[in-house]
Q: What sequence folds into this?
């Protein structure tokens, strides 16, 4: 599961990626400085893991991770191959969610490809290119279903009707994610992998003065996103890069305090990316290791066990589950057991975010 960072050239994508991954992607004041997508595995900040580490004192700690892809800047005409557009659109297709970076700052030293700062216009430029590509994908798919429908398939007639409605929706300048559909239709659309059907988080890149409270451009983006049902956050990528360069926690904390920020913006962004991918965490805790395991929301106990090893899922017998709040308040697994707070759950149990788990299995 991975998130792709998209946006026009020179909006701060690579600077943000550097902060997120410490991968030091090239960042320069010209378009297409990122030719191949940079990929980084990013640790998900989680205070719960820190608390468990303090209580258990394990030999090692393993956090959850999320994969972030820095995709080179799209431009007008990308859907027709302009600016290496086909390659970049292919990179987006491989991602499961989109972090759409919008420039919400003035800086005469950093060229804007369209000559002025206007995040709503920039957002529409990207959307239009993605919609054009979705139309191309949809028209090819419609041809296939129309041929099958002519052979007399009722199911295919229904698919054609659905996709023709979607065609009108996209031609009206709307993204696929806003198209209403039932569960059956959703399966078909997910199979086709439309670019504008991916969940999106709008990331407003501001200057240092707006790092805490945002600015008028951010408010414009919030209104736009509210109409879409999408989320928005703002951060100052250049400032975050300065913070990331500081060597000690104390130095970083002082910098954040001076800005009036409780935590670095990239920490909030990583957590939001994790949520955008519909992911959650459960923990295992022992003397050798305290570890955060990543699962999809809605996973049952056997599915969660399978993330550790497929044998755990195949031979699943039961799960021993501790609510994180009980673990933290009582201070140890032994105390939880003594208090009768450890629960035994079977195959139907749906794992809750933050559960501390042990699995019993037999292969």
A:
């Amino acid at each position: 599961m991975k998130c792709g960072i998209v946006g026009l050239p020179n909006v701060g994508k690579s600077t943000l990626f550097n902060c997120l991954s410490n991968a030091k992607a090239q960042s320069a004041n010209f378009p297409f400085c990122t030719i191949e997508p940079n990929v980084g595995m990013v640790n998900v900040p989680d205070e719960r893991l820190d608390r468990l580490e303090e209580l258990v004192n394990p030999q090692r700690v393993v956090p959850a991770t999320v994969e972030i892809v820095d995709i080179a800047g799209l431009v007008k005409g990308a859907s027709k191959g302009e600016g290496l557009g086909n390659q970049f659109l292919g990179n987006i297709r491989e991602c499961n969610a989109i972090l759409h970076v919008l420039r919400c700052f003035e800086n005469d030293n950093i060229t804007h490809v369209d000559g002025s700062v206007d995040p709503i216009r920039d957002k529409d430029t990207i959307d239009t290119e993605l919609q054009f590509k979705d139309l191309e994908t949809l028209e090819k798919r419609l041809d296939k279903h129309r041929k099958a429908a002519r052979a007399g398939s009722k199911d295919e007639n229904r698919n054609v009707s659905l996709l023709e409605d979607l065609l009108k929706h996209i031609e009206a300048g709307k993204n696929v994610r806003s198209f209403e559909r039932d569960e059956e239709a959703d399966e078909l659309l997910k199979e086709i992998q439309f670019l504008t059907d991916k969940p999106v988080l709008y990331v407003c890149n501001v200057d240092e003065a707006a790092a805490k409270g945002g600015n008028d451009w951010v408010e414009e983006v919030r209104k736009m996103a509210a109409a879409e049902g999408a989320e928005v956050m703002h951060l100052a990528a250049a400032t975050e890069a300065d913070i990331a360069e500081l060597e000690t926690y104390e130095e970083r904390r002082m910098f954040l305090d001076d800005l009036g920020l409780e935590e670095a913006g990239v920490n909030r962004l990583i957590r939001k990316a994790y949520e955008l991918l519909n992911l959650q965490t459960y923990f295992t805790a022992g003397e050798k290791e305290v570890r955060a395991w990543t699962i999809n929301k809605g996973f049952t106990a056997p599915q969660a066990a399978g993330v550790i090893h497929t044998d755990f899922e195949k031979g699943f017998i039961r799960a021993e589950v501790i609510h994180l709040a009980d673990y933290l308040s009582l201070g140890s697994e032994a105390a939880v057991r003594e208090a009768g707070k450890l629960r035994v759950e079977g195959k139907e149990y749906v794992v809750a975010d933050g559960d501390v788990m042990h699995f019993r299995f037999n292969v």
Observations:
- The radius of gyration is 23 Å.
- The chain has a mean pLDDT of 89.
- The first strand starts at residue 2 and ends at 6.
- The CA atoms of residues 222 and 232 lie 6 Å apart.
